[in-house]
């Protein structure tokens, strides 16, 4: 009886959870046998698709830790009831509980910070993607989150003005003492000069990805192509202080940049060939509803 009495609180806590899980699994199995999704093709990837999936995974991790957190004291209490209730054993259990709780809270805080960074990146890609989608009214083809070997290209724009590989970076704005946010980033063709830091890696990343896309597309269509690297930093004012370097934009009115004549315009046939190859790469999202 003593053993059973100790486990009654644990049974009472897990029983509702088990019933909920059993109901969800039963209902899913029941519906899957009577329903079929009418969408029978894979969907195109949306802006920030990879980041959205990562955010969902991290939120599941948070849910797991939040579930574990209230169970820790209950499990330690059960161990206390079953064991020696001496002061030493009690102190050991208290220390173990404190350490375990501290670890879980640390994991939760770390995951929260990761999700915040991923969300900033996702929202940056989403905002730039929506601006780029507007270019479809002018006959451009726009693709998002294109899978490559071990990375993803945020956006690719194809049209008469050429092929553009767009890397997007979300950067928070620092606040001044008066509460106003710094808003300007200078680009000298070599580095990005933010109000209180300097970056070069996003520029190099944009170049690497454009070069990789250029090699793959040229091989895929059997013709030498040029892919222009672009870096987008949404929400910032870009002050270009040199004519050197790649295209850097804040995402607003991209047609004003991508629609310019550059001497490497594409014809309609080649645009369709390139777009076909990109669409095959991007049509990877499985419909999930029943």
Structural category: alpha/beta
User: What is the global morphology?
Assistant: flat
Spans of 5+ residues with little confidence (pLDDT < 50)? none
The H-and-E topology, N to C, reads as HEHHEEEEEEHEEEHHE
Distance from first to last alpha carbon: 47 Å
Rounded Rg: 27 Å
Number of helices: 6
Strand content: 15-25%
Arithmetic mean of pLDDT: 87
Oligomer status: single chain
**Strand order of the main beta sheet, please?**
2-3-4-8-10
The percent range for helix content is: 40-55%
Total DSSP E strands = 11
Topology diagram in text:
Blueprint: H1 2-32, E1 43-44, H2 49-82, H3 87-133, E2 141-147, E3 152-159, E4 162-168, E5 184-187, E6 192-193, E7 198-199, H4 201-221, E8 227-232, E9 237-240, E10 247-249, H5 255-258, H6 268-282, E11 283-285
Parallel strand pairs: 4-8, 5-9, 8-10
Antiparallel strand pairs: 1-11, 2-3, 3-4, 5-6, 6-7
Helix pairs in contact: 1-2, 2-3
Structure in words:
The chain is α/β, with parallel strands linked by helices and 290 residues long. It has one domain. It has six helices and eleven strands. The chain has a five-stranded mixed beta sheet with strand order 2-3-4-8-10. A four-stranded mixed beta sheet has the order 7-6-5-9. A two-stranded antiparallel sheet has the order 1-11. A hairpin with a 2-residue loop joins strand 3 and strand 4. Helix 2 runs antiparallel to helix 3. 23% of the residues are buried. The mean pLDDT is 87.
Task: Give the gist of this structure.
With 290 residues, this protein is of the alpha/beta class.
Which key phrases capture this entry?
single chain; 5-stranded mixed sheet; 4-stranded mixed sheet; 11 strands; flat
């Amino acid at each position: 009886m003593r053993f059973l009495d100790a486990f009654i609180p644990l049974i009472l806590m897990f029983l509702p959870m088990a019933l909920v899980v059993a109901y969800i699994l039963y209902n899913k199995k029941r519906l899957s046998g009577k329903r079929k999704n009418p969408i029978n093709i894979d969907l195109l990837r949306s802006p920030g698709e990879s980041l959205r999936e990562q955010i969902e995974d991290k939120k599941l991790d948070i849910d797991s830790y939040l579930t574990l957190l209230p169970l820790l004291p209950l499990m330690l209490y059960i161990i206390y009831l079953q064991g020696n209730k001496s002061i030493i054993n009690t102190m050991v259990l208290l220390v173990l509980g404190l350490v375990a709780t501290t670890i879980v809270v640390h994991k939760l805080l770390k995951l929260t910070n990761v999700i915040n960074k991923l969300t900033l990146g996702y929202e940056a890609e989403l905002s730039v993607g929506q601006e780029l989608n507007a270019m479809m009214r002018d006959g451009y083809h726009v693709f998002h989150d294109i899978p490559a070997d071990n990375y993803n290209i945020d956006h690719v724009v194809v049209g008469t003005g050429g092929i553009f590989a767009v890397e997007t970076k979300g950067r928070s704005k620092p606040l001044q003492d008066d509460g106003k946010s710094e808003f300007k980033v200078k680009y000298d063709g070599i580095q990005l000069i933010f109000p209180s830091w300097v970056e070069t890696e996003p520029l190099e990343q944009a170049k690497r990805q454009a070069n990789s896309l250029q090699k793959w597309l040229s091989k895929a269509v059997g013709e030498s192509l040029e892919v222009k690297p672009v870096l987008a930093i949404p929400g910032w004012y870009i002050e270009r202080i040199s004519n050197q370097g790649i295209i850097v934009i804040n995402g607003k009115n991209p047609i004003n940049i991508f629609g310019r004549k550059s001497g490497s315009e594409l014809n309609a046939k080649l645009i369709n060939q390139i777009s076909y190859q990109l669409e095959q790469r991007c049509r990877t999202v499985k419909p999930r509803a029943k």
